[in-house]
Structures are given as structure tokens and as C-alpha cells.
Amino acid sequence: YTPQSNWGQSLEFNPEVQDMLGPQTSFAEVAEAMGSLIKAGKIRSWGMCNDNAYGLAASVYTSRALGVPPPCVLQNDYSLLNRRIEENGVSEASSPAMENTGFMAYNVLAGGVLTGKYLKEPAAIDSFQAGKKEAALRRFREPRGRMDENG
After folding, report:
1. How far apart are CA 98 and CA 61, in angstroms?
2. What is the tally of structural domains in the chain?
3. In this structure, is residue 150 part of a structural domain?
4. What are the tens digits of pLDDT across the range 95-111?
5. What is the domain range of residue 103?
6. Confidence check: pLDDT of 33 > 90
7. How many CB atoms are located within 10 Å of the residue 53 CB?
8. To the nearest 10°, the Cα dihedral for 43, 49, 55, 56?
9. Under the GO molecular function aspect, what terms does this record hold (predicted)?
10. Is residue 136 in a domain?
């Protein structure tokens, strides 16, 4: 098991890659370690990052079986460009009806791609902002509605 190990790759099993991964940490070992940290008062709760629905479910079930608080949050890459969690079952697995685990997105602006950081020429000024200063000042000078007068 490797979380999100097949990003854009073949889903075919490759034993050479499996051997390169080295020893794996079991779900029970992680849950026991987190449980001991919670018991010692060093952490309040724990979460997971870059995992999939299988990893989330296995961690929750193993934690419950060991009497340890399950993970409270899953953090994954999510943006307008990367909506993989909508396809791989993470959103369903973390829902209140299933594991009731929170979801935290990272890289929501796709590393600057969605902000225009990598454009050769600067992006156009937002039409929402262009020329709005005078209109905003007019609203203050000429109020209307419940407060028809200044003061």
C-alpha cells in the first residue's frame, strides 16, 4: 500500500517499484504511536496527508480496533486544476456518514498557476476593481436607503 502512488501512471503492478519502496509502516504501528502521544498529552489529535480512501478507512478501522482516537483530518492536494479527490472516493470516505473525518485542502491556487504568477505578461486588471474608486466615493457622498442623510 502506498498512498496516491499511481499519479498519472499505469495501474499495473510493478514488482520493481514495490522493492524500491522499502519497509512499510503498518496502520497499527501508526495508530499505536499516535495513541501513545495523545495519552502522554503531547498531541490532542492526529491527521493524515496525501492519502486515499483506502488509507483513510484502514487507519480509522485500525484505530478503533486498538481503542485509539482515529484521525480527525485528511489533507490532500485540491484545486480547480486538481480535483482528483472527487474521483477517488476521498470525499465520500471522509463524509459524516462514513468516517466523519475533516478535509483540508492544500495547494488551492495550484502553485500560482491560477493567480497568473507564471504568465509572461501581467494579467489584465480585474474589471471588478477598474474605475470603481469614484463610484464607491459617490456612494458615501450620496447615501440612499435607510440612511438618507450623512451624520
Report:
1. 11
2. 1
3. no
4. 888 888 999 999 898 88
5. 15-116
6. yes
7. 18
8. 60
9. oxidoreductase activity
10. no
